[in-house]
């Protein structure tokens, strides 16, 4: 038997169980015993992977941040049409927002942030770093003369906020279903066109 693969499976089972338990019961009411039971492993196995509940929660947050890595990878290309690039950028963001596991992670993080504001401050700071990919794209487009003078960070939040209003907050807070493909495409196109109507040079 491949012990490495078995260890990886146990690791994922523990993380999945923790997400489920944190989401159902909150951080404080979730015990390592309950996580172990839900994961189908021993409590000792849980501690072999994560030394504490805080470490396990920190790992979940790291997965949330890592999920947005694709937004970091997209770079502005001066030889490509601005609108097509913006649609690609927002499409990448939307793919993240429709991912069920990402939404579960977000629910856990947001719920914990509400109950413990000090955790929320750290989460917001780290999330802002991850959203820098969009701001960097906007900064490059502005430097290329394709956008009017703007604050890239403010404009990034403005642009992404249009997507989140329809495709993140209703799903995370009210349990609404993710958007259908046609509605998703219309939202992306409308958000891009509104943005460009105001900011395009």
Automatic annotation (TrEMBL):
For the HTH tetR-type domain, which residue ranges apply?
A: 8-68
- Keywords assigned: DNA-binding, Repressor, Transcription, Transcription regulation
* Location of the DNA-binding region in this protein: 31-50
The protein's matches in Pfam families, at most eight in alphabetical order, are given as: TetR_C_7, TetR_N
From the UniProt record, which GO molecular function terms apply? DNA-binding transcription factor activity; transcription cis-regulatory region binding
What is the name of this protein? TetR family transcriptional regulator
